[in-house]
Amino acid sequence: MSDERALIRRCRQRDEGALAELIELKRQKVFRIALSIVGNEDDAKDITQLAFVRLWAAIPSFDESARFDPWFFRIVVNLGLDHFRKRRRRAEEPGGEIEPEPPPGPMASVQDATLYRADIRRIWNEAARRLTPPQRAAFALHEIEGFGTEEIARVMGVRASTVRNHLLQARRHLQEYLRRRYPEIARGR
Amino acid sequence: MTNAPREIFDCGRVRAFLDSYLQGQVPPPERRAMRLHIHACADCHARVVARDPLQLFAPLADEEREEAFWAGFWPAVRADIHAVEAESSSWRGRFLRPSLAWSAAALLLVAALALARTWRAAAVLPEAAGGAPIVRTVPEGWHRVLPSRGSLGDPAPPALEDVRSPSAKVLSMKVYGQDQAVTEVVLIVDEEIRL
């Protein structure tokens, strides 16, 4: 696999092979971020695809001295937030769908990693419905992807204090949700 | 003690570094190794989640879709890219792009608004010396854009004001015409609009 900076340079020179390699390098993370924001696998796939199409169109304007990930993930987060807002607007229209809250299901054992992660994803999708789109994005980038507050601020195009506020609110809502719906998890099983 | 997926972190080391881990002070490679141990070890997992229930979501960072999931992804992206490039290189794509269409619509709207305001302002003018209002017909032809010096004072500077949408701005300015007609131009700009 080529060095990321070299791949970016080749993409700027319109080398499609470099884009294919960059996709290979970034697609899992892009998909995870999109999924954490929109909470739906099909929508997250569409956003991931569109993010790379937008990346290809915008990469000539990318400043190579800047960090690539915050610049690129800003495209992903904006697509995710736009999608989420449109979907919520549709749901608010008369006759729009409002999904009922699913009952809490049993969780797989922590040792069964794949099943366990699928359960956690399900719980996240339920819990994240209490969050605003920016709160979802901030929490997913910070607590799941490990981004720092300043970096999230650059990705989301807001101030670091706003990110900290989103994180605080998100943590409060999620803790409350876990305490109410999954008390055994909140107690540490 | 449960078997850990990585040798460098066992239950003892996880306990030793737990405070730093929860405060986000462990560097990314070690953090990942710790996380992999924590979420494969029932004891450590229970300890971590008891300290911070939201650590439940931490394993999502290691969630990866299998290769089969990505089958056809690159061809689909490439097809989209080629479609976008073909569209933008055709004359229809160049001249009928949504952004241009929206810009043209916005310009038309601004022009219509300006015209309507000009007519309204020009139709009723200040009272004449005798007290009777001077009513003129709608002026014909072009207006000057520059203010008539000394008659109406300096033109109002453009005013930028926030509107409800956090990214939208309204830029309004007044242009004074030859026969004291006032044209108000209002521009609404919203960079959040996706075209």
Shape of chain A: globular
In N-to-C order, the SSE pattern of chain A is HHHHHHHHH
Number of helices of chain B: 6
Oligomer: heterodimer
Poorly predicted sequence stretches spanning 5 or more consecutive residues of chain B: 1-6, 133-139, 141-156
Mean pLDDT of chain B: 71
Q: Major sheet of chain A: size, sense and barrel closure?
A: none
Mean of pLDDT of chain A: 86
Strand content of chain A: under 5%
Question: Which two protein chains have the largest interface (Cβ within 8 Å of the partner's Cβ), and how many residues from each?
Answer: A-B, 41 and 37 residues
Percent of residues in beta strands of chain B: 5-15%
Number of domains of chain A: 2
Q: Which range best describes the helical content of chain A: under 10%, 10-25%, 25-40%, 40-55%, 55-70% or over 70%?
A: over 70%
Number of strands of chain A: 0
Class by SSE composition of chain B? alpha+beta
Total strands of chain B = 5
Task: List the main descriptive attributes of the protein structure presented here.
A: about 190 residues; mainly alpha; Rna Polymerase Sigma Factor, Chain: A; 9 helices; globular; B: about 200 residues; alpha+beta; 2 domains; three-stranded antiparallel sheet; two-stranded antiparallel ribbon; 6 helices; about 40% helix; disordered N terminus
Please provide a written account of the structure.
Chain A has helices spanning 4-12, 16-38, 41-58, 68-92, 113-127, 133-144, 149-156, 160-181, 183-186. Chain A is mainly alpha-helical and 189 residues long. Chain A folds into two domains: 1-99, Orthogonal Bundle (Rna Polymerase Sigma Factor, Chain: A); 101-189, Arc Repressor Mutant, subunit A (Orthogonal Bundle), CATH 1.10.10. In chain A, helix 1 packs across helix 2 and helix 6 packs across helix 8. Chain B is of the alpha+beta class and 195 residues long. Chain B has two domains: 11-62, no CATH class; 97-190, no CATH class. Helices cover 42% and strands 15% of the residues of chain B. Chain B has a three-stranded antiparallel sheet with strand order 3-4-5. In chain B, strands 1-2 form a two-stranded antiparallel sheet. Mean pLDDT of chain B is 71; it is low at 1-6, 133-139 and 141-156. The interface between A and B is large, with 41 and 37 residues.
